[in-house]
Amino acid sequence: MKPYIQGQLDGLCGLYSIVNATRLLNGRMSKAAATELFHSCLNHLHEKGGLPDVICYGMGIHQMLSLLREVVKPSYPLDYDRPFRHSAKTPVDKWWATCMDFLSPGQPRAIILDFAMWYWSHWTVAWQATEQRLFTFDSSERRIINRRHCTTSELSVEHGILLYPAQTIFLFRK
Predict the structure, then answer these.
(1) Per-residue b/e over 124-135, b at no fewer than 16 CB within 10 Å?
(2) Is the pTM of the predicted complex or chain greater than 0.70?
(3) Neighbour count for residue 71 (Cβ, 10 Å)
(4) Coil, helix or strand for 112?
């Protein structure tokens, strides 16, 4: 199974991360079912009055949580947690260890995370973690995030991926 790519359904990485995480946690999902979920998310954003901004500027954590709470949870047996919601300054080592523990083998789990590089930010889905890598199911076809390039404080030449702990969402089946 391959993740849907931005442009196959639309161009919004936040929505794709929700659809792709739902696919991972619920097994195979037809393109028709994925499109219906995508459409329901767009309708929700339209009803809330935020659709133009989301299309132009992407989604923030509050829109992501609203979609999970009001669109995904009523239709799929999923729940979520935000272990770092009050910990924006979580050190990368603690963030990584917590993600590794959550994604330990045997449990159908996924993490939706937001990260930035020098010129853009992006929502993605992690489905597996090792000491060195996060493996992603990503709409831009990014397959891994290397730990050695990550930080939770400030971008630098050595650390060109800025992770946002407070915007990390742990998803799991109920």
Answers:
(1) bbbbbbeeeebe
(2) yes
(3) 20
(4) strand
SS3 category, 101: helix
Whether 99 contacts 134, CB under 8 Å:
yes
Give the span between the Cα atoms of 35 and 29, in whole angstroms. Answer: 10
Mapped onto helix, strand or coil, the DSSP state of residue 167 is: helix
Domain ranges of the chain: 13-77, 80-173
Instruction: Give the helix ranges, DSSP H, for the chain.
Output: 13-26, 31-48, 51-57, 61-67, 92-102
| Measured distance CA(38)–CA(135) in Å, rounded | 23
DSSP class of 133: E
Average pLDDT of adjacent 10-residue blocks, the chain of 174 residues: 64 88 92 96 92 84 97 96 94 98 92 92 95 94 93 95 97 93
